[in-house]
């Protein structure tokens, strides 16, 4: 077995590797901070937001943020979608990403998908929403590891992964990554791997 096949520390879901790379050891454990991230899909289009401030500034991403104390993850995801894109939507859990940077709390990000919504999509102080065709997702202007797991979300394959980055000035440099899917949910596997 290749050493990258083994699940990295922090991944508890029953998943098998579909993407992995980088070198060195996984960074050591820190306290965990919870985040959410929501992607709206309508037919061939995906709604992303251009982040205007804070973590991930100038990148496209789903809509999300920190889970507040005494708030469920789902409530936080719905609140952030409303605050940042102006809409409400029934959410389905799509995957989990552990984002690790030495010296910072680990970010445990619960990622959700939605296929319908109500309200009017609106720009907020934090995000400028923009539709993209599924074939024209701006991966070069997103977090480096989005290219590995976003296709899994689009194909409706529950995934779990970890991405270790090092912070150099304002930049985050990808060091090592691992993404897996549950081998028992093979319904649309050919669409994504
Ligand atoms: C590889 N690393 C990553 N890959 C993909 N997405 C990532 C990410 N690391 C963080 N994210 C997302 O970026 C947003 C940050 O949210 P962030 O602005 O810090 O939170 P919040 O809206 O609570 O901010 P305020 O404290 O109100 O400014 C939030 O959606 C979170 O899920």
TrEMBL record:
SUPFAM superfamilies: Nudix. Residues 31-155 form the Nudix hydrolase domain. It catalyses: 2-oxo-ATP + H2O = 2-oxo-AMP + diphosphate + H(+); 2-oxo-dATP + H2O = 2-oxo-dAMP + diphosphate + H(+); O(6)-methyl-dGTP + H2O = O(6)-methyl-dGMP + diphosphate + H(+); 8-oxo-dGTP + H2O = 8-oxo-dGMP + diphosphate + H(+). Its main location: nucleus. Its cofactor is Mg(2+). It comes from the Eukaryota. One of its GO terms (cellular component) is nucleus. Pfam families: NUDIX (PF00293). Keywords: Hydrolase, Magnesium, Metal-binding, Nucleus. GO terms for molecular function: 8-oxo-7,8-dihydroguanosine triphosphate pyrophosphatase activity; dATP diphosphatase activity; metal ion binding. One of its GO terms (biological process) is DNA protection. It is found in: Nucleus. Its EC number is 3.6.1.56. Oxidized purine nucleoside triphosphate hydrolase which is a prominent sanitizer of the oxidized nucleotide pool. Catalyzes the hydrolysis of 2-oxo-dATP (2-hydroxy-dATP) into 2-oxo-dAMP. Also has a significant hydrolase activity toward 2-oxo-ATP, 8-oxo-dGTP and 8-oxo-dATP. Through the hydrolysis of oxidized purine nucleoside triphosphates, prevents their incorporation into DNA and the subsequent transversions A:T to C:G and G:C to T:A. Also catalyzes the hydrolysis of methylated purine nucleoside triphosphate preventing their integration into DNA. Belongs to the Nudix hydrolase family. Monomer. This is Oxidized purine nucleoside triphosphate hydrolase.
